[in-house]
Amino acid sequence: MSIYRNGVWFLKGLKEYTKSGYEKASQHFNAGDLEVNLKDRIFMVTGGSSGVGKSIVEDLAKRGATVHLLCRNTERAEAIKNQIKETTGNENITIHALDLSKPADVYKWAKNFAESSHKLDVLINNAGAMLNVKTVTLDSLDAGFAANTLAHHILTTLLIPKLSESDDPRVVMVSSGGMLVQKLNAADPQCDLGEYDSTMAYAQNKRQQVIMIEQYARKHPKIYFSSMHPGWADTPGVEQAMPGFYTKMKDRLRTPQQGADTALWLAISQAAKKYVSGQFFQDRAPTATHLPLARTKCTPEEEVVFMNKIDDLMQKFSQKPKKEGDDAAEGLPGPGEDAEYASSSSSSTPKYSP
């Protein structure tokens, strides 16, 4: 990351990403945008057991939504489910055990859900992981890339047909303004080359997510796609992944509810749909995906190379052989922690083009 990008981004963050930035922006919000009855709407949220994701789930439940909550920590999710049931009376929350760092499991789960009788109106890709050291999974993938990028690509792609059955389908990607310091690296999307920097690897994943949403919007015009930046929020993930930053900034960080606001707005309001699909949002408004003079823009051809790479990886893990004795966990559908699956679908997905 250049000194210029770093400096410009941090100054922008101090002005816009903090609690005071939210409070200033919220003066222009229309409170009525979120006054929506969701009793007939069905949502899926990844990583909804803490932080911004938890706030999203709570706000959906308060409005009567049916929510499918995908997370690895089911014990914590069950506690949240019980808490929400107590405070809202909403019992329509289903927890699904899923480790997003295991793409074969993600593929099998999404395929099963897509082929089930369940309906789906909105997918909120919220889960995120920032790892302090380079971590490689048993599938020889960078763990951050697997969870932040590949898993959400698999979920989104396989659930497109299910979403298309809705009369108002939407996909919201919880990205990060940190992506502004990174140019898409189509040649090395897993940050395998050079010295590993966890913060920059995470920012690269977040840049990838924004590119993915732009590409999905072009390819699937009947679905409303958006990505967003929650701002600098006080969440367990931020505290654990960036302890130095958290200690210095904790009094200025947004609440999880403030961080979740724009994701919720994109997922449920009619006001959001006055904007073109595929854009990146901050505080309920589209915002630039590049800093001035930062040289982070890539070519359309580079975007296509990246999209085709993650498509190829998705196909690879759709065909992973099933081990003898593997069992699916209880529920619809829920892979076990160590399960590997075979897929009956071996057809290749249409490639992206400039």
TrEMBL record:
<dbReference type="GO" id="GO:0016491">
    <property type="term" value="F:oxidoreductase activity"/>
</dbReference>
<dbReference type="InterPro" id="IPR002347">
    <property type="entry name" value="SDR_fam"/>
</dbReference>
<feature type="region of interest" description="Disordered">
    <location>
        <begin position="316"/>
        <end position="354"/>
    </location>
</feature>
<dbReference type="InterPro" id="IPR052992">
    <property type="entry name" value="SDR_member_12"/>
</dbReference>
<keyword id="KW-0560">Oxidoreductase</keyword>
<dbReference type="Pfam" id="PF00106">
    <property type="entry name" value="adh_short"/>
</dbReference>
<dbReference type="InterPro" id="IPR036291">
    <property type="entry name" value="NAD(P)-bd_dom_sf"/>
</dbReference>
<protein>
    <submittedName>
        <fullName>DHRS12</fullName>
        <ecNumber>1.1.-.-</ecNumber>
    </submittedName>
</protein>
